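Researcher: Let's do a round of design. I'm pasting the structure tokens now; please hold your answer until I've finished.
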């Protein structure tokens, strides 16, 4: 018989929380960025190379000059993207302690989380950053971006966090 994990005191304490944040953030961040590289590159032909995907993230700090920075700004963009993923995972984990249903229903709440993160990033974070202004996406672009964020970012973060920290007895 498995013991129940009290979400207020996860098994192995802080180490379990840290592990959940790192693994959930890595899952969401890597799936999301590789999804973007594939969808916006070879499928939709919206970028000339994967380099531009990472550099577009770096524009949040460097502005349009990030596109002239080569591999250095590509690395910066990837690093910033992963940092944002770890922060998002930490937010989901700590919200899960306050609202344990988030851990027990990761598919449902992963969708919700993905949508919320999408709108926070596109309507608050990016406009406040150094990124150059962009034309608003048309409906197709919005649905593609939202789908990537939901299915390759929000849901993986929620599944990993829920799997590692859920209070269900079947662990």
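Researcher: That's everything. Go ahead.
Model: Designed sequence:
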């Amino acid at each position: 018989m498995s013991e129940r994990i009290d979400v207020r005191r996860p098994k192995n304490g802080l180490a379990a929380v840290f592990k959940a944040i790192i693994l959930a953030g890595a899952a969401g961040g890597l799936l999301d960025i590789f999804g973007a590289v594939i969808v916006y590159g070879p499928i939709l032909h919206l970028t000339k190379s994967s380099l531009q995907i990472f550099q577009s993230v770096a524009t949040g700090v460097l502005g349009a000059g990030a596109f002239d920075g080569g591999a250095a700004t590509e690395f910066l963009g990837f690093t910033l993207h992963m940092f944002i993923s770890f922060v998002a995972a930490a937010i989901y984990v700590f919200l899960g302690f306050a609202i344990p249903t988030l851990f027990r229903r990761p598919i449902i709440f992963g969708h919700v989380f993905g949508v919320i993160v999408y709108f926070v990033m596109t309507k608050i974070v990016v406009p406040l950053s150094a990124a150059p202004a962009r034309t608003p996406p048309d409906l197709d672009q919005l649905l593609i971006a939202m789908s990537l964020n939901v299915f390759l970012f929000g849901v993986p973060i929620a599944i990993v966090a829920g799997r590692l920290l859920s209070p269900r007895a079947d662990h």
